[in-house]
Design brief:
Layout: E1 4-5, E2 7-11, H1 16-26, E3 30-31, E4 36-39, E5 48-55, H2 61-68, H3 71-84, E6 94-101, E7 104-111, H4 115-137, E8 146-153, E9 158-166, E10 172-177, E11 182-187
Helix pairs in contact: 1-3, 2-4, 3-4
């Protein structure tokens, strides 16, 4: 299998040197050529780092999970956490992992300047991807043409589903009860 493509983007609250340092730490596992960017950000948004994994499929999911569970990733996450764990503009940075599963888009986020929390978020990314894959395989989603948001829950040290937004004309918003494993609509779609 070819190396997976990864796109890394940091906003203007970070330096190009920091961007290249992060890219170097992940460059051995992913194809990064022409996929590293500095983003323009608005004054209101928090310092942001985006790691876009692209399309997750049945074929590449084991490879992605293998990288996340590897010693290579453990070393990289420490270097990345050291860079991203600095408060900027007196705000905690937002780290966003983005990917898609066919027509479902996923945004997996952690907002912290605590290096241990950032390391744990990188470490637990595999569980978030596995959980989303399981929901898709069970066909346990209100819609597959949607955007799902997961947030890092520090007390349990895992990513949890915050909400799912159905895109397009049938707009609706749902929350997920993990204990009951049930979706509840919180913003109605068009009637």
């Amino acid at each position: 299998m070819n190396r997976l493509q990864l796109t890394i983007a940091l906003d203007q609250n970070f330096s190009e040197k920091e961007l290249h340092k992060i890219a170097e730490s992940l460059g051995g596992a992913f194809e990064l050529k022409d996929r590293v960017y500095m983003l323009k950000s608005s004054e209101e948004s928090p310092p942001t780092a985006v790691f876009a994994l692209g399309q997750v499929t049945k074929d590449n999911l084991p490879y992605i999970l293998g990288i996340i569970k590897s010693e290579y990733w453990k070393k990289a996450k420490k270097e990345i956490a050291q860079t991203l764990g600095k408060r900027r503009k007196d705000e905690d940075p937002l780290i966003s992992f983005e990917c898609s599963f066919d027509t479902l888009k996923a945004n997996i986020r952690c907002r912290s300047s605590d290096r241990k929390v950032i390391e744990t978020a990188f470490e637990r990314l595999d569980l978030a991807l596995e959980s989303l894959w399981a929901l898709i395989q069970k066909k346990d989603l209100p819609s597959t043409k949607a955007q799902v948001y997961l947030g890092f829950h520090e007390p349990t040290k895992i990513f949890r589903i915050d909400r799912l937004v159905v895109l397009g004309r049938e707009f609706a918003e749902y929350e997920y009860d993990e204990k009951k494993q049930k979706w509840s609509q919180i913003a109605p779609g068009k009637t």
